[in-house]
């Protein structure tokens, strides 16, 4: 890394372009944050204590009742959509178009079902729907996930030993540690809209 010349024009142009895009993305999120904060307050039914509340709290120990209609509406929509998507078993059936496709389709269906279960897809789906209904945007990301463990094995290595100027063959036991994958799969995560920095010059669909 010490050989990289950071003064090169190409490097400076690339750095400037990346910083410009980061600034655009940051400003876009900052411009939306107040609206999203307000939507959060509507969703949770938050309201600040006003003068009338202070008077009634002092005189009668009560304040205005808050009915969280926005919360109820969002949760009702989530319940309906959640049931529609997850009620089938398997959740995403795969069928072949021809006889030769039947077995591969069954394998694909089993893999999708495993990945949905391993990723706790129900939780992912709930959080994604909640973001979408609250903020009008729901973001997910998929990464490749690998799990494994260190495994130590003993290997026999052929060598020689010199005695009185003569090489004699001998065997030597050596331990070797290597990483053995135990799981390789897709990992789905829900991205907080506040942390989703995108180029605002392009529509969300792209």
Total strands: the figure is 2
Order of helices and strands: HHHHHEE
Measure the end-to-end span. 34 Å
Query: How is the quaternary structure best described?
Result: single chain
Task: Round the mean pLDDT to the nearest integer and report it.
Answer: 86
What would you call the shape? elongated
Report the major sheet.
2 strands, antiparallel
Helix content: 40-55%
Structural class estimated from helices and strands: alpha+beta
Rg computed from alpha carbons, rounded to a whole number of angstroms? 30 Å
Uncertain segments are none
Number of helices: 5
Strand proportion, as a percent range, falls in 15-25%
Spatially, the strands of the biggest sheet line up as: 1-2
Give an account of the 3D structure.
There is one protein chain. The chain has 206 residues and is of the alpha+beta class. The protein is 47% helix and 25% strand. It has 5 helices and 2 strands; from the N terminus they run αααααββ. A two-stranded antiparallel sheet has the order 1-2. β1 and β2 form a beta hairpin. α3 crosses α5. It is elongated and about 105 Å long. The two termini are 34 Å apart. The model has no long low-confidence stretch (mean pLDDT 86).
Characteristics of this structure?
elongated, alpha+beta, 5 helices, 206 residues
Summary, kept brief:
The protein is α+β, with helices and mostly antiparallel strands.
């Amino acid at each position: 890394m010490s050989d990289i010349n950071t003064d090169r024009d190409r490097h400076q142009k690339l750095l400037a372009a990346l910083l410009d895009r980061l600034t655009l993305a940051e400003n876009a999120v900052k411009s939306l944050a107040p609206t999203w904060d307000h939507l959060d307050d509507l969703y949770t039914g938050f309201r600040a204590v006003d003068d009338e509340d202070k008077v009634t709290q002092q005189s009668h120990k009560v304040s205005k009742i808050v009915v969280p209609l926005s919360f109820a509406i969002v949760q009702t929509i989530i319940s309906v959509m959640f049931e529609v998507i997850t009620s089938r078993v398997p959740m995403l059936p795969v069928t072949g178009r021809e006889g030769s496709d039947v077995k591969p389709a069954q394998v694909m269906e089993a893999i999708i079902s495993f990945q949905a279960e391993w990723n706790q897809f129900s939780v992912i789906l709930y959080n994604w729907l909640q973001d979408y209904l609250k903020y009008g945007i729901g973001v997910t990301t998929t990464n490749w996930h690998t799990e494994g463990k260190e495994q130590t094995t003993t290997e026999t290595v052929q060598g020689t030993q010199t005695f009185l100027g003569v090489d004699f063959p001998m065997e030597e036991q050596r331990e070797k540690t290597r990483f053995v994958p135990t799981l390789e799969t897709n990992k789905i995560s829900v991205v907080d809209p506040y942390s989703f920095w995108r180029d605002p010059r392009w529509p969300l669909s792209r």
